[in-house]
């Protein structure tokens, strides 16, 4: 996946360019942050959204010091069943705080997860990509909000990039100019 450093690409992305321009991750996913993020994913962790989004500020501000900021922020949507079970969407919690802090508009339901997908946890990258194919759609009337815009997709953790790849493809088909990925944590490439 594109790295936080301008122009740096991992070997996988050099061979097969993703449909997004860059990824900015505040943390490396692993101890001790792994435990914090697992807690954040549960409903009782929803109150951690502000301090965790604060952790994302420095890498984001550094990345956009000499580049235009995205014009829209979009959280990765959860499937309805998972949202009901979890009680909140961590990606939306982060996106909501970042939108307020950076004064960039966001809409929690501009993109919808249109079907339940099995958990990605035990799947390979190829299986994850197949699992998510066609999983996202724009909400009715949202295309105008996206057309020609620079969009930041926000998620809590990026592992293989399958989720943000499928979401970026959906946004590109809707006429988005560019997609950037902002995540709280990134799984090290050697373990993804």
Q: How would the blueprint of this fold be written?
A:
Elements: H1 11-15, E1 22-28, H2 33-41, H3 49-63, E2 72-75, H4 80-86, H5 90-102, E3 111-113, H6 125-132, E4 136-138, H7 143-146, E5 150-158, H8 162-173, E6 178-186
Parallel strand pairs: 1-6, 2-5, 5-6
Antiparallel strand pairs: 3-4
Could you describe the 3D structure shown?
The structure is a single chain. With 192 residues, the protein is α/β, with parallel strands linked by helices. The protein is built from 8 helices and 6 strands, in the order H-E-H-H-E-H-H-E-H-E-H-E-H-E. The strands form 2 sheets. It has a 4-stranded parallel sheet with strand order 1-6-5-2, with helices on both faces. Strand 5, helix 8 (162-173) and strand 6 (178-186) form a beta-alpha-beta unit.
Low-confidence stretches: 1-7
Number of contiguous helices: 8
Rg over alpha carbons: 15 Å
How much helix is in the residues? 25-40%
Oligomeric description of these chains: single chain
> Describe the biggest sheet?
4 strands, parallel
Form type: globular
Order of helices and strands: HEHHEHHEHEHEHE
- Number of DSSP strands? 6
Mean pLDDT rating:
87
- Percent of residues in β-strands: 15-25%
- Sheet/helix structural class: alpha/beta
Q: Give the N-to-C terminal Cα separation.
A: 11 Å
Major beta sheet, strand line-up = 1-6-5-2
